[in-house]
Write a sequence for this structure.
């Protein structure tokens, strides 16, 4: 990967690459590699900063996973409550929509007095964002379960809990998974804003790269963000296919 | 509760509202960025979506561009533009980033709206001898209007959010109050800025919601 002649330069993590410096009339030429020339695409950056990139990527994935998982844990009961009790649907949808309208930077800032400069702040903000997408889609899925199906289940002696777990939730899965995919992809992209409190995964690298005009760092971190988002989306699509084999058949027939 | 009262104090201090870094100036910048970029994005996205929708072509592109837009972090695009040669031209990186993120919802919703027009209605219009142009402006566009306006509303809210993030990358707008608050380690200012941004975003959403309710309902149900 590393171009010939490039030397790993540790301790130069965020420093802006230097122009040729004149000392005592002599020109000291810095190592002629893509880091020194501050190029957008730089193999030497990848090989020398592997650990930093790895840590940031892990933090990014961790923040996304925790917040989406918490979001699902909160969204499922909310959606079920909104489905079961008529009066709950309006407030639940209203509040989550209002939350979704608040810009991300403002959301993190509003949580600052509660959580301080911590990873918990980023997670809390992301959970609040994922709620709208998750609740809306799970609710749409639950509402799309045909009345006859539920009557048939009840006629077979299914109680309310079994009806929910064995009939309604599985049938709501395709819509719920669509919401989960959108929520996950959005979360991956929003984690970067967490850089404002120092917990932004790859966003931290973008932020410090901006302050030091470090092109390779900004581009690499941005591309990694997109790769994580696309990979997560494809992974969830695969999980959805595995969990709902009946939709696959329908689609094949529809084509 | 201490932070709340300190935030209230920040918001009610007249000095914070006036001057070069005051709230009024930032609010003006935010409003300017939102309105100008919304107009620019509509000019770019709507003609393309209307023509594609009328011809029934490019559907996969129009629909998928929204999903692709979601995967790309706003902040990353802002910083990439800032470090690119465009970065030296004042507000241009911010404006370009804002337009880039406002175009997908406009394009997708307008296209879906155009394709959602009842095929029988379109056939009837053709049977009456309408030209393509007459069909586009007299039949399809009015029927697609609700979804087009939904797209405009989503784009407007997106613009407000993106303009806020632009402050991280040195852009103007209300987000500056937040970033300045972080730099000063002043939690009241951060929260005050966040409250202002949130209220602004909700107001924009509210204006569109109000316009939708006031608009004449045509065609009855369906």
């Amino acid at each position: 990967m590393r171009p010939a002649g490039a030397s790993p330069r540790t301790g130069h993590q965020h420093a802006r690459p230097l122009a040729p410096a004149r000392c005592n009339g002599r020109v000291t030429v810095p190592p002629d590699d893509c880091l020194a020339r501050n190029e957008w695409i730089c193999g030497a950056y990848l090989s020398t900063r592997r650990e930093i990139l790895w840590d940031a990527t892990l933090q990014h994935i961790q923040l996304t996973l925790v917040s989406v998982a918490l979001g699902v844990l909160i969204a499922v009961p909310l959606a079920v409550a909104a489905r079961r009790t008529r009066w709950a649907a309006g407030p639940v949808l209203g509040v989550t929509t209002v939350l979704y309208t608040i810009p991300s930077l403002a959301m993190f800032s509003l949580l600052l007095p509660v959580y301080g400069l911590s990873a918990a702040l980023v997670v809390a903000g992301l959970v609040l964002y994922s709620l709208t997408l998750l609740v809306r889609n799970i609710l749409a899925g639950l509402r799309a379960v045909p009345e006859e199906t539920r009557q048939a289940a009840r006629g077979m002696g299914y109680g309310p809990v079994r009806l929910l777990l064995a009939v309604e939730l599985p049938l709501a899965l395709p819509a719920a998974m669509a919401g989960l995919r959108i929520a996950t992809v959005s979360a991956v992209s929003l984690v970067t804003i967490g850089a404002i409190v120092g917990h932004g995964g790859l966003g931290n690298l973008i932020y410090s790269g901006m302050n030091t005009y470090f092109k390779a760092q900004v581009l690499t971190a941005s591309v990694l963000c997109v790769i994580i988002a696309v990979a997560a989306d494809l992974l969830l699509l695969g999980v959805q296919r595995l969990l709902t084999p009946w939709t696959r058949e329908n689609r094949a027939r529809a084509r | 509760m201490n932070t709340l009262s300190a935030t209230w104090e920040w918001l009610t201090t007249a000095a914070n509202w006036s001057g070069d870094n005051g709230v009024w100036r930032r609010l003006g910048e935010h409003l300017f960025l939102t309105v100008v970029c919304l107009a620019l994005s509509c000019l770019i996205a709507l003609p393309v979506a209307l023509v594609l929708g009328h011809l029934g072509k490019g559907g996969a592109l129009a629909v998928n561009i929204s999903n692709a837009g979601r995967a790309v972090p706003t902040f990353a695009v802002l910083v990439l533009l800032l470090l690119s040669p465009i970065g030296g031209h004042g507000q241009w990186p911010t404006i370009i980033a804002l337009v880039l993120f406002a175009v997908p919802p406009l394009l997708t919703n307008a296209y879906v709206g155009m394709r959602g027009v009842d095929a029988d209605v379109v056939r009837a219009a053709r049977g009456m001898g309408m030209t393509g142009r007459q069909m586009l402006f007299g039949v399809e566009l009015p029927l697609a209007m609700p979804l087009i306006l939904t797209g405009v509303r989503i784009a407007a809210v997106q613009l407000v959010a993106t303009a806020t993030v632009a402050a991280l990358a040195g852009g103007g707008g209300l987000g500056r109050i937040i970033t300045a608050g972080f730099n000063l380690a002043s939690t009241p200012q951060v929260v005050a800025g966040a409250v202002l941004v949130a209220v602004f975003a909700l107001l924009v959403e509210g204006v569109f919601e109000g316009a939708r309710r006031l608009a004449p309902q045509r065609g009855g149900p369906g």
